Amino acid sequence: MTANKPDEWKTYDQFAYGIGTNRLPETNALSGKSFKLSFDDGRKLSLVFADGKAKWADNDGSGEDRAEMIEVAPDTYFIDIDFESRAKDAETIILNVKTGRTLSIYAHVREKEEAGAEPQVAQIFRAGTVDGMEATGFTPEETRDLIGLRAHFTYSPNHTYEHTYLSSKRYAWQCLVGVQRGHGDVDLATTWKFDKDLYIFTFREFKIPVASTFFYNFEDRRSTGKFLGITGDGRIENNPAGAFIRKASVTFYEPGQEPI
């Protein structure tokens, strides 16, 4: 934990308990299917899905690990892989099997000394395409679309959080219902647009070692995601989460006064 964490601040495992209650169910629609992905930075990733697992191989190794698969929009899947051989890492793949578009969010728990003043859990973003498919439709890209939005996320009867998207780099949160009620902070955030009304929102906390990846489907008003972080007793956990979304308000800025 960082030295500036308040004494009453909840640990990752304390606030995350039950936060997957309102998550969409897993699917086996990809079982038996395989994909080869090429990312813009040159990374190659092959995936073969079966029985809740993924056989994978990339530029640095291969393995077979637990993989969650959720259909978060038509033909679009949220795939989250826990690497047994890479205990400090987890990867989320957003994959549209019709357009051939994909986005990887690779999360890594660093040592505190390596992170320095930055959040301890880092994230790497890679856009890509499916080999053998002609990529069509919208090309995923980092976006400013959410700046000014204030929204409420209900993950369970015991978890409601308010998000305010401040800029292209930061967002503010506060807990309205739950063990963190009254707590809030401003953390680093990155948002990508995947398609119309479909976004990937990620954040990296300063006060505790945790980062998150969420897929927002604003048409269905559903959020599907995960947290990767260090528990109060020092274990690394990759936990599911999901919420109902309610847009609360939007702030509009005068030209020339927009946030970064």
From TrEMBL:
Q: Which part of the chain is the MoaF C-terminal domain? A: 141-249
Domain of life, source organism = Bacteria
Transmembrane annotation, as ranges: none
Q: Which Pfam families match?
A: MoaF, MoaF_C
- Do you know which InterPro entries this protein is assigned to? Calycin (IPR012674), MoaF_C (IPR035348), MoaF_N (IPR024724)
Q: Which residues form the Molybdenum cofactor biosynthesis protein F N-terminal domain?
A: 8-109
Residue ranges of coiled coil: none
- Kindly provide the name given to this protein in its UniProt entry: Molybdenum cofactor biosynthesis protein F
What taxonomic lineage is listed for the species of origin? Bacteria, Pseudomonadati, Pseudomonadota, Alphaproteobacteria, Hyphomicrobiales
